[in-house]
Amino acid sequence: MTAPAIDARAAARPELGGVERWARELSARLPYTVHRPPEALSHRAGHAWEQAVLPLLSARAPALLCPANLAPLAARNVVVVIHDAAPLRRPDWYSNLYASFQRRVLPLIARRARAVITVSEFSRRELRELLGVDAHVVYGGVDPRFAPGEKAERPYVLCVASHTARKNLRALVPAAEALAREGVELRVAGGHRPQFAAESGLGALKLLGHVDDAALPALYAGAVAFVLPSVYEGFGLPVLEAMASGTPVVASGVTALPETCGGAARLVEPDGEAIREALLALLGDAREQERLRAAGLERAREFRWERTAGEVDAVVRSVARAR
């Protein structure tokens, strides 16, 4: 049988959000034919490549895995990973053009796909309600590069998130101001996304911008704590990467984050006061830091990209056999 194919458009992007991580990890681990456009066609300019060129490149494949929400509408062999339904649930978080595009194409992609995969039970419920599809749930993983290491000389709390409304970075400002008085920085790794409505008023945060993937493991391991204040996550890979790095986690107790954290993080309301109090309390309690560190390491061991790839492959192969 001809090998399945994978759409590696998201893997060509320099950014590294959840969909890019999935595309890179699956492209590297699955024995599929990888169709990867030039980096210049990895964002908006690549829609034409994905819709017109990719179906021709993958026409002979028994299945085409599209791991980053979008897929060619003309293809009839698609298995698509839809990570969440945020553009449908909260279109105001995105540019008008992007929200309108997602509102038109996501239902078509979900309806025409041979199978839909999503990344959490939370997202499965969202897709059932908003798109009327019943998706397979496959959790993401953590690369072994994320492991405990030396803490930085100057203490800092880390957040890994793009500057977008649903990441709720403004809720970190009260914590950043309070931590600064204790000599602790609150650093945010991640840049802007052109399709999202950006947040402002983040002056109290140490904004690192885009951080190269090779530098992320040390950045996670060097932090005294990790915080993710999101108001909407389909899964939340950074909390697991922080846990695997031996860094205690504070996260919003909403959407998929309780499912992903599995009791190994301190969950709080996604508002500035609750996050400030939680971080200050955690940094003042060495015993709680050690408890969360141990619980996080145990939780992160349950998630490996090899398992993710194997479960995705099982869905793809079932589609290929039935074609």
From TrEMBL:
<protein>
    <submittedName>
        <fullName>Glycosyltransferase family 4 protein</fullName>
    </submittedName>
</protein>
<keyword id="KW-0328">Glycosyltransferase</keyword>
<dbReference type="Pfam" id="PF13692">
    <property type="entry name" value="Glyco_trans_1_4"/>
</dbReference>
<dbReference type="InterPro" id="IPR028098">
    <property type="entry name" value="Glyco_trans_4-like_N"/>
</dbReference>
<feature type="domain" description="Glycosyltransferase subfamily 4-like N-terminal">
    <location>
        <begin position="68"/>
        <end position="145"/>
    </location>
</feature>
<keyword id="KW-0808">Transferase</keyword>
<dbReference type="Pfam" id="PF13439">
    <property type="entry name" value="Glyco_transf_4"/>
</dbReference>
